[in-house]
Specification:
InterPro entries: GMPPB_C, Mannose-1P_guanyltransferase, NTP_transferase_dom, Nucleotide-diphossugar_trans
Strand order of the largest sheet: 5-4-1-6-11-8-12
Number of helices: 10
Family: Belongs to the transferase hexapeptide repeat family.
CATH architecture of the largest domain: Alpha-Beta Complex
Number of domains: 2
CATH superfamily of the largest domain: Spore Coat Polysaccharide Biosynthesis Protein SpsA, Chain A
Number of strands: 31
Pfam families: GMPPB_C, NTP_transferase
Distance between the termini: 78 Å
CATH class of the largest domain: Alpha Beta
Length: 432
């Protein structure tokens, strides 16, 4: 009897495996220059997808996660950015490093999350693609593990598989909310950014889609021909209509997730990624004696042995950290000079900036409430209802020069500013 049962289970398992879909492509939506305004002034100098998180461009972490799936052979980056030399060079480097076909495809206008993939559907459908990943560039999680788990979870008849995340009730209204049947995991109701509470299960920005979704997008496209409205939203126009039709299902992610909307969330994402380096890339973390906790240091950086770094610090290329300096919970971008005995806490120091000797640059760190397990980092607003700047990390824009013996606290400084003559420092201000 046991042998018969084992044979039956093996037969079931084989049938189950045959029903699993081969995923050979991933599409990453990288947005465009009209997006990421809450990320300024950092996005004034570099496209947000190329901003370094834990030493590597944000979108490279997504590419690396996709490359870890053995069946994925092609990654398409879709966005509205001009294909500059900086972006083209990045794509070439990614192709060389991960040995995959990686391409950047530019939209002729902002076509929406569904319109953009519909425009390039012929490229997505080549090579007999059955299903593909669609990933938003500004989400952050253990994507490598999630992609593998979504492939294992998905059945062929699930046209739309959406990664779901549980957040606090008041935070849910900033995202697409899903009503999920707990027995079947079907999404029976979907609404994008509701005005009142609907559900604390939200759309986490990772999809595993059947190519049949293009039929649903085509219907919306045909309805809008000649109207002048070329934008089609996967969330508002497609998911909201297909929910409850037996097509849309949720894969609930119980691990950490966040959306990178602001500079403050970038610092927190860098902290989480360095924690994940211990699991996937321990060689990327510094083992120097003057480092406390997780620290990434670019090989070209020069850090004095008496300087103290960490925890949660990322040091970019050609950075110089002089003797006695202290850096904690911060992102130090390429070419920065931190002079003797300077202190940088919970801040982002922009490219080729200089922090003077004995100067203190300090922000307010992003913290998650320890008693609220589903809280995430929102940071949607810079100002309160009275127009006062909310406590935030400090940002020094590119080429900022701070004098010696100055205190900069909870401030945002736009690029190219020299703060000489500001001995009293700067606090709770934006310097334009």
């Amino acid at each position: 009897m046991a042998q018969v049962e084992n044979l039956f289970n093996n037969s079931q398992r084989q049938n189950y495996q045959r029903e699993k879909t081969m995923v050979s492509k991933a599409v990453i939506l990288v947005g465009g220059p009209g997006k990421g305004t809450r990320f300024r002034p950092l996005s004034l100098d570099i496209p947000k997808p190329l901003f370094p998180i834990a030493g590597l461009p944000l979108v490279q972490h997504h590419i690396e996660s996709c490359a870890s799936i053995e069946t994925i052979k092609e990654i398409l980056l879709i966005g509205f950015f001009q294909p500059t030399e900086q972006l083209n060079r990045f794509v070439r480097e990614m192709k060389d490093e991960y040995k995959l076909n990686i391409r950047y495809l530019q939209e002729y206008s902002l076509l929406g999350t569904a319109g953009s993939i519909y425009l390039f559907r012929d490229l997505i459908l080549t090579s007999g693609t059955e299903a593909f990943f669609l990933i938003f560039c500004d989400i952050f999680c253990d994507l490598r593990g999630i992609l593998s788990n979504m492939i294992a979870f998905r059945e062929k008849w699930m046209n739309y598989l959406v990664m779901g995340v549980q957040v606090e009730n008041e935070q849910s209204m900033n995202y697409g909310c899903m009503g999920v049947n707990p027995q079947t995991n079907e999404v029976v109701h979907y609404i994008e950014k509701p005005s009142s509470f609907v559900s604390n299960h939200i759309n986490g920005g990772v999809y595993l889609l059947s190519t049949e979704v293009f039929d649903d997008i085509s219907k919306i496209f045909q309805e809008r021909v000649g109207t002048g409205n070329d934008s089609i939203s996967l969330e508002s126009d497609i998911l909201s209509k297909q929910a409850g039709q037996g097509k849309v299902f949720a894969f609930m992610n119980e691990a950490f997730w966040m959306s990178i909307k602001s500079a403050g969330s970038a610092v927190y994402a860098s902290r989480i990624m360095m924690e994940m380096y211990k699991k996937y890339h321990p060689n990327r973390l510094s083992t120097d004696a003057n480092c406390d906790g997780n620290v990434y240091i670019h090989p070209s950086a020069k850090v004095h042995p008496s300087a103290k770094l960490g925890p949660h610090v990322s040091i970019g290329s050609n950075v110089v950290v002089e003797e006695g300096a202290r850096v904690k919970n911060s992102i130090i971008l390429d070419g920065v000079i931190i002079k003797k005995h300077a202190c940088v806490l919970s801040s982002i120091v922009g490219w080729h900036s200089t922090v003077g000797s004995w100067t203190r640059v300090e922000g307010t760190p992003t913290q998650l409430h320890p008693d609220r397990p589903h809280a995430t980092t929102d940071n949607f607003y810079l100002f309160d209802d009275n127009g006062k700047l909310l406590p935030t990390i400090t940002i020094l824009g590119r080429d900022t020069i701070t004098p010696d013996e100055t205190i900069i606290r909870n401030a945002i400084i736009l690029p190219g500013k020299e703060l000489h003559g500001m001995k009293l420092g700067l606090q709770n201000q934006i310097l334009l």
